[in-house]
Specification:
The complex is a heterodimer. In chain A, about 45% of the residues lie in helices and about 20% in strands. Chain A is built from five helices and three strands, in the order αβββαααα. Chain A has helices spanning about 5-15, 65-80, 85-90, 90-100, 105-130, and strands spanning about 25-35, 40-50, 50-65. Chain A has a three-stranded antiparallel β-sheet. In chain A, α2 packs across α5 and α4 (about 90-100) packs across α5 (about 105-130). The N and C termini of chain A lie far apart (about 40 Å). Chain B has two domains: about 10-20 and about 260-385, Alpha-Beta Complex (Aspartate Aminotransferase, domain 1), CATH 3.90.1150.10; about 20-260, Aspartate Aminotransferase, domain 2. The longest helix of chain B has 22 residues, at about 260-285. Classes of the chains: A alpha+beta, B alpha/beta. The interface of A and B includes residues 30, 62, 66 and 109 of A.
Chain lengths: ~140, ~400
């Protein structure tokens, strides 16, 4: 049972960035299950910059262990200012590497963060699709 | 959060305890000049033998046993393995049914799972919302081929005591052995094998301010038990291997201290626990006390804080210089919460937010107050972070 966390993980756990809810988010994604001890909710704000859609703001709320909270916080830091295409490509590995690695048994936490973001982007795209009558992407 | 802690406030004494300085003093000669092998017949060996037998008397004396009923082991886990597998192997011609509970320590549960693979049939008894075993279910589970009932005396997560005496009454006149894991009871409540009516009882030194790596089993005379470790026949053939002399000496002194300081320690634990049980719900909204309000060891207090996860509580406490523990084990894909809390009917969501505080001899009032001071802020911070409504 490895329970060692990197300095980076503890830094993000101690002072998580971008915690909270967002008023009028453009997209929301929630993953996990309280029964499993992990729930992550990600809120995004999307704006146009140089003809591209970027994630201008991101917030999270997480119920979970140290790794879950640190992964959520790190994810929001990585994502801010990225284009939607770039953000969609963020993987569990990107989050975990940015944190200086996670104990093997905690890797799924970084997965959860990446999944929550993907869901929030999908939510945004489906809403945009409806509003603009454009094609819905999946 | 940013203050430098000079001293850790150690509130995890159910996991392990610091070595009592008196125990260390007693051990030191056996780590240095008294290095003898108790099996040697020369003076150096005899010295070691005397020390081991003196420790055996002290441990026996603490639980109302005779010295020849005490067998030293390498740990509490080994003691439980020896008790269960030892009885299972020695009595398998008589029957292959064993009864235990759903809330045992992993070293009992996994030993039982191992025996299942070898053809034994195990009944895992349910517990009620307080963590107390169902005696009616025990009675109805007894069979002609039942050879052993193994029920822990005090649960390590919630501190609930099991009705061992009543169980021994139920088993009376039946040819069924009764084993109890009492590692959490020694030094917290009076312990007497005759009053309890058990055949085998497990103890561990490091839970009572003794060294790690040494435990003991009490085995009533006449109990049929096979050894797990074969070799030179030490411990009257039940546990071969050269004795851990310094460890055993330390255990002896720790047991003696546990007996002499019992009333003092117990009174302190009761005072501290009562304070937590009264004040945590006053200071923090929506908390759940886990365990039995009365039938409990006095040094373990377990609370659940819904909407937050236990490891996060433990690590924020750690950042404040306080050591405690949780039954939430977010360590795998399955993310199973504590099997003890789950067996008590507590929902997984609530079980994930559990915190175990366990007091020890070296805690003082300041430690309790410090916990009460920082815990509300930690729970509030985590709840603000939580998406659960």
């Amino acid at each position: 049972m490895i329970k060692m966390y990197s300095e980076k993980v503890m830094e993000h756990f101690r002072n998580p960035k971008n915690v909270g809810e967002m008023k009028d988010p453009d997209g929301v994604g929630e993953v996990g299950n309280p029964v499993c001890g992990d729930v992550m909710k990600v809120y995004i704000k999307v704006s146009k910059k140089g003809g591209k859609e970027i994630i201008s703001n991101i917030k999270f709320k997480t119920f979970g262990c140290v790794a879950a909270i640190a992964s959520s916080s790190m994810l929001t830091e990585i994502v801010k200012g990225k284009t939607l295409e770039e953000a969609e490509r963020i993987t569990r590995k990107d989050v975990s590497e940015a944190l200086g690695g996670l104990p093997p048994v905690k890797e799924h936490c970084s997965n959860l963060a990446a999944d929550a973001l993907k869901k929030a982007i999908l939510d945004y795209l489906s809403k945009r699709g409806k509003n603009e009558g454009g094609p819905e992407r999946s | 959060m940013h203050t430098i802690q000079s001293r850790v406030i150690y509130l995890d004494n159910a996991s392990t305890t610091p070595l009592d300085p008196r125990v260390r003093e007693a051990m030191l000669p056996y780590l240095t000049e008294r290095y003898g092998n108790p099996s040697s017949i020369h003076k150096v060996g005899r010295e070691a033998r005397e020390a081991v037998e003196d420790a055996r008397r002290k441990v026996a004396d603490t639980i109302g046993a005779s010295p020849e009923e005490i067998y030293f082991t390498g740990s509490g886990s080994e003691g439980n393995n020896l008790a269960i597998k030892g009885i299972a192997w020695a009595n398998r011609s008589r029957g292959k049914h064993i009864i235990t509970t759903k809330i045992e320590h992993k070293c009992v549960l996994n030993t039982c799972h191992y025996l299942e693979k070898h053809g034994f049939d195990i009944t895992y008894l349910d517990v009620d919302e307080y963590g107390v075993v169902d005696l009616e279910q025990l009675k109805s589970s007894l069979r002609d081929d039942t050879i052993l009932v193994s029920v822990m005396y005090a649960n390590n997560e919630v501190g609930t005591l099991q009705p061992i005496k009543e169980i021994s009454q139920i088993l009376k006149k039946r040819d069924i052995y009764l084993h109890t894991d009492a590692v959490q009871v020694l030094g917290k409540l009076p312990l007497d094998v005759e009053k309890l009516g058990v055949d085998v009882l497990t103890l561990s030194a490091h839970k009572i301010y003794g060294p790690k790596g040494v435990g003991a089993v009490y085995v009533r005379k006449g109990t049929r038990m096979d050894p797990l470790i074969h070799g030179g026949g030490q411990e009257r053939g039940l546990r071969s291997g050269t004795e851990n002399v310094p460890g055993i000496v330390g255990f002896g002194t720790a047991a003696e201290l546990a007996k002499n300081l019992l009333l003092e320690d117990k009174a302190k634990f009761e005072r501290f626990s009562e304070k937590l049980i009264n004040e945590i719900p006053e200071r923090i909204e929506n908390v759940k006390f886990n365990g039995h309000p009365k039938k409990r060891v006095p040094n373990i207090v377990n609370f659940s804080f819904p909407r937050v996860e236990g490891e996060s509580i433990v690590m924020y406490l750690d950042l404040e210089g306080i050591a405690a523990s949780t039954g939430s084990a977010c360590t795998s894909k399955s993310l199973e919460p504590s099997h003890v809390l789950t067996a008590m009917g507590i929902s997984p969501e609530v079980a994930h937010g559990s915190l175990r505080i366990s007091f020890g001899r070296f805690n003082d009032e300041y430690d309790v107050d410090k916990l009460l001071e920082v815990l509300p802020g930690i729970i509030e911070k985590l709840r603000k972070m939580s998406p659960l409504g």
